[in-house]
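Researcher: Predict the fold of Serine/threonine protein kinase.
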Amino acid sequence: MPLLPLIALLVACVLPVQAADLGAAEYGFPLDNPFEATIATTPLELRPAVPADDEIDQDDYSLRLRPEREFTLPDNFWPVKRLGYRLARQAGPAPLIFIISGTGAHYANGKTEALKQLFYGAGFHVVQLSSPTSYDFMAAASRYATPGLSQDDAKDLYRVMQAVRAQQRKLPVTEFHLLGYSLGALHAAFVSQLDETRQSFGFKRVLLLNPPVNLYTSISNLDKLVQTRVEGIDNNTTFYEVVLDKLTRYYRHKGYIDLDEAMLYDFQQSPLRLSDEQMAMLIGTVFRFSAADIAFTSDLINRRGLITPPDYPIDEGTSLEPFLKRALLCDFDCYIVEQLIPMWRAQYDGGSLTQMIEQVSLYALEDYLRSADKIAVMHNADDLILGPGDIGFLRRTFGERLTLYPRGGHCGNLNYRVNTAQMLEFFRG
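Model: Structure tokens for Serine/threonine protein kinase follow.
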């Protein structure tokens, strides 16, 4: 490691929350490759000490928010006809923090779980929420089941939060906070603005981790990763075969299989490490599956007939593979053109793609974000989802409330103990 864990810990203790000018060597995060950081995240020895899962008083709950879907959704959607969430509770009165997951992520996603452990260990009640782009949220909570219009997504999230509060009315809460990562950070900004008028929570502090600034730029960046040219891939050998061959040889050498972030970090230190092109395509593929999931679920719920014929009989025994294959041909841009913009125009008399981008991105909240002292941003200078001008926008809008780390890729340093110390410092004021 470039710096000892002790030095990283000292940096976390002595640096102010504003870390925009922190150099890479001073910061101490060991992965200078943004693709690698995005995939492998932080080495175990550089993560904070957090409670183990069996030390957390937590349960999963469900909400009945769209009862009409219980009759219109196919039978094999039964697990998501009610919206699930997870609550970790302290023994007595405590602040409560809502965590909004990133693109396509379920409330029990690994990053959401890690943030839960961090804030529970710091004395917070924690509520974990699925992303409005996850199939469970789309089916059980979304009014139009066509995510991508940030104001609509925020309204759906807000109704979920209100329902959680009503269901957990006996939970002793001293104050409310809000956190989102990746796309969930963009949603958190819109939810915070909505709460200014509705005043159900009066969030004391709101933290945006690695948010997209221009949503369309971020989507385009991720879509392009799948188009990366990778050595060794031709008409006879697929990308997945190349990666699988490398992983197989690695596991054969190790003698056991353990597919987690720590393994990925270790794998990238081996001679079999993935190239930049292979890592780019791996990241892009994950997001392509998210896009396919969104396109398939939105089309099915709304009976649009773009992927699944509206009258096609679907039950628990129906193979969805042909439809999922068709959905995989539809990237985020395809979903926007075929489903999101038509819905926006039908419901809100919307106009051009450019007008929609302005409405769904952080640009739409610029005046609010500039004046909202309770909102802060933590981002990475090498984040894959940022485009030209995005960092400049963040600096102008947030000023000293922006913490810009020199490296970390997309959310790859959320569990680095310098970052986590500064997260807790922000929420403690």
